[in-house]
Amino acid sequence: MSVVRRPKTPREKYGEELRLRRIAAGLTQEQLSEIVVCSPTLISHWEAGRRLPKPDDARRIDQALGTDGFFERWLQDLESKYTDHFAAVAELEQQASLMQQFALTLVPGTLQTDEYAGALFRAYRPNYTAEELEEFVVIRTKRRRILDGPSHPVVWTLLDEAVLRRRVGGPQVMAKQLHRIADMAEAGRLRLHVLPYEVGAHALMQSLLTLMAFDDSAPVAYVEGFQSGNLMDDPALVSGCQTAYSLALSDALSQQESLALVRAAAEEHAHGQQ
């Protein structure tokens, strides 16, 4: 039986090409690292697509492998505005046919309004400029485009009730954000469910989770913490995440009940009742 793999991201294709060119040049990772002036571990990260070389590193790679600027030029198309741990996830979002996302405390990035995203940035960046804030909001909300195109994925959104109650950006920002989510659900753009406080403990209460499935590739799972993230494609790990999502979903309110709760929470925020 053939093994179905998830699609390779552009970063992974870059790394694979680097590995093939290095082997063709008769160099080990250790030998290449000496020429590029870095650690062999970093070469391994580049070849696995976990990280990208800096422009100076790519220039030295081309010199070492005799590739005439190939890797330096290609790098310009791969430079990401996202953090290292999220860059591959952002690329895979563009290819997914199904996304199942669970949010523990914050609205998922693909659903955030500009005002909500800006409030998040201001909360964890004590010193920022207006230009930095604008760039962050553009980068964050650009991910919403995957929901608008003709090949957009099917989206399931499961929210802990805490997402509805934490007032991010003030009452009006929060009300607008929740109404946007409800509008999308009513328009059939996403399937919405809420895990109410009364459920108590549930299978996903320790972490946010995103599951992605693809038409011709194996599924992946992504969990995230503070300034860190873990993209998993090991079948056993992904299966465990899928089971946890199913268990949590079984404890959630129906879509109709969830919509009613989200709308009610939005109105409470708008009228300062929380």
Automatic annotation (TrEMBL):
InterPro entries: Cro/C1-type_HTH, DUF5753, Lambda_DNA-bd_dom_sf. Residues 18-70 form the HTH cro/C1-type domain. Signal peptide: none annotated. SUPFAM superfamilies: lambda repressor-like DNA-binding domains. Pfam families: DUF5753, HTH_31. PROSITE patterns: HTH_CROC1. Gene3D superfamilies: lambda repressor-like DNA-binding domains (1.10.260.40). This is Transcriptional regulator.
